[in-house]
Amino acid sequence: MEAFLQTLGVEGIAFVIGLMVFIFTIRYAHAMFQWIEDQTFGTRSFILEKLEFLFIEVNPDRITYGLLAISVGAGLMTFILFSFMGMWILGLIFSLAIAFLGFKIPRPIMNFLVERRIKKYQNQMVDALTLLANGIRAGLSVPQSIGMVVDEMPSPVSQEFNLILQQNKIGVPLEECFENLVKRIPIEDNDMFVSSVNILRETGGNLAEVFDTIVGVIRERVRLQQKIDTYTAQGMFQGATIFSMPFVIGAIYAASDPGSMTPLFTTPLGILLLVAALTLDLIGGFIILKIVKIKI
To answer: Rounded distance, CA 295 to CA 266, Å?
Structure first.
């Protein structure tokens, strides 16, 4: 093998490696370009889609500049800061990590905002369906009752129901408008509400009584969810405490004996242990979050 490498020489080895990289790139070009698109324009499209769901209008160019600022910009500033302190290797590692997180962190943030809005919508459904039932009992039609909900209820219920009315005004059938609501907010309560409305509009029946039944089911679900949130609050606090302990202990050591923390940032072994500790801490926090998060 050694004789073969000597025969090839440096140029030959470089040519073989380049040929292998070229073949691999050609073979997986579609997957590679798709991955790059998902990490760049895919992230921007995801954010714009979620902002549309949140009824927030933002210029797409601002999203692009924001992503570049919190990823490439933040990573470059981190590298420059560590370079001034003479820690090139640690600066390179942290700058790459921050740049990677800069592209990844908007997705969970947007998902959190969407989940919070959906949860707020669920909590308002009881009052919204009660208003719908009262409107139907008073002799109003379904669109008129929905209009009353839009006028009386706050967002996000008023926004979603107003979107139903706007779609219906431009010629979309009411059944399809309700189906679009389920697609936008795919929760069991919405599915049960929309299914009952569409079925009873076709077959006939007392919508007010059905809405009262759905309200009872939703109220029990919300009460159970609130009880579970109360029970899991202690677990969330314990998880946050365990997650923050390494950082607090490191800060105490750095304040009391800075010399003992220097090898952690200046030696290869210390940097490796630091990266491993941060990785394990993040994994542990993620697992704890999944354990204490219970869905009904």
So the answer is: 45
